[in-house]
Amino acid sequence: MRQHVYTLAGGLAAIAVFTGILYAGAASIRDRESAAAPELMLETPDMSELELVPDQSGTGDDVPLDLGPADSGGTGAAPVGGANENATTETTARAIEPQQFGLPNTVAKAPLERVEPRPPLSEDNSKQAKAGPTVLYRPVAIAAGVIEFDKLRVQLDGIEPEEADRTCEGGGKTWPCGTVARTAFRNFLRARAVSCDLPEGKAKPSATASCTLGGQDLATWLVDNGWATPLVGSALEKRADAARKAKLGFYGEDPRDLNHTPMTFDDPTLGTAMDAPQPDL
Fold first, then answer.
1. Residue 203: inside a domain, yes or no?
2. 279 in a domain, yes or no?
3. N or C: which end of the chain has fewer CB atoms below 10 A?
4. CA distances, 139 to each of 164, 178, 185, 208 (Å)
5. Contact assessment for residue 146 and residue 186, using Cβ atoms and an 8 Å cutoff
6. Which tens digit of pLDDT belongs to each residue from 30-70?
7. Which alpha helices (H) appear in 141-236, and where do they start and end?
8. CATH for 224
């Protein structure tokens, strides 16, 4: 019986000691928190000490002008948690009106002036941009010196227009030189892209322009090969004289007739006597 009593008394004593330790720890934690975060001391200024100014908005209420310090010293400092007590803050209140909210004084006092708007950017860009050549993709030659692209007919500048049904006399024969000239012009183009200096303005069904292909002027190529007649006073007249002397194009015979063209053979044994010894192969 005594053993049970001693056991019970020891257990109660242990519980009491453990409870005392918990209370002591809680008290120590509270003391540390109070030392780390002291109480804040805030002061509210007395509204009766504020200087009031007449309201200019027409409402009839006076507006406080200066939210000055609450103490008599004029410092307006409120110690907060050990901060520097000599620090001062100055706050000034101003009248807020919906008509003048966010506007500077110069705008609020002086009337607004309307200025002329600047011209659109699209017009400025069009004036500064330089007109470049127009690229015609896969044009079709309808005659020597006349090409057509997407319902636009372009006559080459500097030469006379030629008709596809033109006929020429040469070698005592008549041959369709206009059709042959058109075929030669088509073979030169070969459906390649052509750059033309088309006149500015609205699109027209026909125009006269200078066109180039790979840096080669098309009118110059036609005159050099005798397939075009230059205009009077044109710089291409000397080239036309050279083509006339060489009997090229319109100034020669039908290039389709091979009777007047001597046939040559690239045969190293041509002209060798039959009885000459042949090399051993």
1. yes
2. no
3. C
4. 17, 19, 11, 15
5. no
6. 877 766 655 656 666 666 665 555 555 555 555 555 544 54
7. 177-189, 218-224
8. 2.40.50.90
